[in-house]
Amino acid sequence: MTYILAIDQGTSSSRAILFDADMRPAFSSQQEFTQHFPQSGWVEHDGEEIWASVLAVVRGVMQKASCGPADIAAIGITNQRETTLIWDRVTGVPIHNAIVWQDRRTAPFCDSLRAAGHGPEITAKTGLLIDSYFSATKVNWLLEHVPGARVQAQKGALLFGTMDSYLIWKLTEGVSHVTDATNAARTMLYDITKGCWDDEICGLLDIPQCLLPEVRDCASDFGTTGLFGGSIPILGVAGDQQAATIGQACFVPGMLKSTYGTGCFALLNTGDTLVQSQNRMLGTIAYQFDGKPTYALEGSIFIAGAVVQWLRDGLGIIQQASEVADMAASADPTQSLYLVPAFTGLGAPYWDAECRGAVFGLTRNSGPKEFAKAALQSVGYQTRDLLMAMLDDMGAVGPAVLRVDGGMTASDWTMQFLADILGAPVDRPQVLETTALGVAWLAGSRAGIYPDKAGFAKTWALEQRFEPQMPVDTRDTLYAGWKDAVRRALG
Questions:
Q1: 314-319 long-range Cβ contacts below 8 angstroms, 24+ apart
Q2: Are 409 and 379 in contact (CB under 8 A)?
Q3: CA distance 332 to 317
Q4: Cβ–Cβ < 8 Å for 70, 231
Q5: 3-class SS at 446?
Q6: Torsion-angle region of 23 (φ positive above 0: left; ψ -120 to 50: alpha; else: beta)
Q7: Whole-model pTM?
Q8: pLDDT tens-digit series, residues 4-38
Q9: What are phi and psi of 278, to 5 degrees?
Q10: How far apart are alpha carbons 433 and 24 in whole angstroms?
């Protein structure tokens, strides 16, 4: 049996999945790691703990499959994007915990950059809005606040990377300091039209370019690992949301996908055109083959599946995430509870780093079931915010079909509400592991055992379509209530 190994390094856990010759997930292993919250709005990960978790899940899945390196044709890596790590070029030891994409500590610095008028130039080059979500200001913070870091960086003694770069560097034992175009595009340092690190932005943020990895196509030679008993090439890399776009076979302009993990991320393929959003959406690279980028509009929601974690770990009203949908289904239908989950600020299209979570519409009868319902509905409302903005940017008329993936999509109740509030069909594929599938296909096609792009697109299969059933007036009333709740939270 020949496998492709997909390493999915996410925000809350690391996973390894072995895909068989027919691109089906055959074996998997998963391990959670610690979330660190040193201050309000700050989120960190221990890079070495993440590396240990990746080693553990790879060894675990190989043991489950009773396979060795000779049975694995290639490795694909997908990762939480924007999360920022700097490590010693010689020892590989991180100089500080990784600063996670959710982290808001650099929001004041971002405010100063906008106030100084740098926003239009940075958006024109990177497609991104100035925000602490992206890697650039996190790199600046580390160089400014870790003793000796700036001097070491200027000497070339340190390396920066998003999690893909760090894992590749560790897997290749310090040989390869590389990334792919989709991850580079999320740093706010990369010119996505010219395809290079931008001198002016790096200078503005005082970031030495010797820190930065080499940028390659999504399907490319990223190096070879010998850590698992033999040599295995690393042939595919993409940031998690771009990997899901690939895994959903959204290769035609106008195709749209939304992934529901810790956050929610919707990507709309715009082809060769980098659309300049008028609605605070992001321009980004969906994927890059043969040196040619395909662009996308993206909307990012910081809190999706994380709101269910909050119900479990913060409020303690559930023990398992699987309980939430049944609770929501049995909630009091006469109550209109709105939860605005701005635990680390609001993402697109609001981009307010200072906004914090709020609940509106509480009554004496509001209880755990109503909170569960409001939590799941908040994901649908936020998705509608994104899609309306994207369709307006594209000048599109009428609802598009939304392809969905991620852990939350297993809930029929949540997907039906999503279709209802969007007024559009929601398609759930047979393979929900689309993020891992995307990089497995990248690596497998590069290795010559999986089909080309057109052949891969033909393998996409529908598991269930959710058609909107809610009356239009009900949908509009519910959404108007959401908009009012957001307005109050922002105020």
A1: 315/368, 315/371, 317/368, 317/371, 317/372, 318/368, 318/372
A2: no
A3: 16
A4: no
A5: helix
A6: left
A7: 0.86
A8: 999 999 988 999 999 999 999 999 999 999 999 99
A9: -100, 5
A10: 10
